[in-house]
């Protein structure tokens, strides 16, 4: 069987911890893999912690030979002289270029998946970045698909149906079509990328006690129950709407493979409580595999040697597993 290409790890915010955790992840994985390369400025990485072993490569195919001895780096072609903890909009073009190049290489088959280090959105906005975040930019690079965010950890997988919006706006953004569309994408991704033959979905209620028969809100009756019925009619194993306060304990989690939640904190509070250091941000619905650590740029500890690479390592390992499953499925 043909060898799986290396993974592409993006630079992320250069003033944050991305470079540090990329090097730390390489140190842990150098002896066993998965093989990955960084799309970054090699000199920036060499200056992070006392001249670490960094090797510039010309093509992704060279990464496998280099990986056991040094971190393989595809150079961006422009210097990035960042100061830890001090984001600079002048580096925005390099951050975006690293993401775009990783996607291009992965779509061309030269790399197996995209693993993105965290970005600093405010700095990118100041540099003219026209997307709310990574996910929307990746969706545009993929041709305008519908992206779905999943947070996946050893104990729980969750999908927030609405993400970075005010809580007061959530009921207005939800509807039957959205729930059905995202439910289909999640079920297909669980089959394709997680090798779950018959995925089981649980759909959370929006209101306490699932609305208590309408006494605490009618959103469940108006659009959540009909959406669940439509998904079930399509052959998807789905239950809900379930009261969110009773669907995340250990016994309840045994009954589903992923939970569809109505808003950001309803999804992220349980997964970060259970799997804080090992949770991975996965973008579903793309024509390529993309994962990311489930944390931010950590500007407050950048350059101090305190950043832990656990979530990035989990993202790399999950991306490799997903890429292998996709290749097997398409073979």
Salient structural properties:
Isopropylmalate Dehydrogenase, 12 strands, alpha/beta, single chain, 37% helix, 2 domains, 331 residues, 12 helices
Could you explain how this protein is built, in words?
- The chain has helices spanning 18-29, 42-46, 63-66, 92-107, 121-126, 134-141, 170-173, 176-192, 219-233, 250-253, 264-275, 310-330, and strands spanning 7-10, 36-40, 54-57, 71-75, 114-115, 148-152, 157-160, 200-204, 237-242, 258-261, 280-284, 290-293.
- It is of the alpha/beta class and 331 residues long.
- Strands 3-4-2-1-5-12-11-6-7-10-8-9 form a twelve-stranded mixed sheet, sandwiched between helices.
- The chain is globular and about 65 Å long.
- The model has no long low-confidence stretch (mean pLDDT 93).
Coarse shape: globular
> Can you identify the CATH superfamily of the largest domain?
Isopropylmalate Dehydrogenase
User: What is the correct CATH architecture of the largest domain?
Assistant: 3-Layer(aba) Sandwich
Order of helices and strands: EHEHEHEHEHHEEHHEHEHEHEEH
Name the structural class: alpha/beta
Query: At the first level of CATH, what is the class of the largest domain?
Result: Alpha Beta
Estimate percent helicity.
25-40%
Mean pLDDT score = 93
Please report the number of helical segments: 12
Give unreliable regions as ranges.
none
- Calculate Rg over CA atoms: 20 Å
Determine the strand fraction and express it as a percent band: 15-25%
Q: Trace the largest sheet across and list its strands.
A: 3-4-2-1-5-12-11-6-7-10-8-9
**Through-space gap between termini:** 10 Å
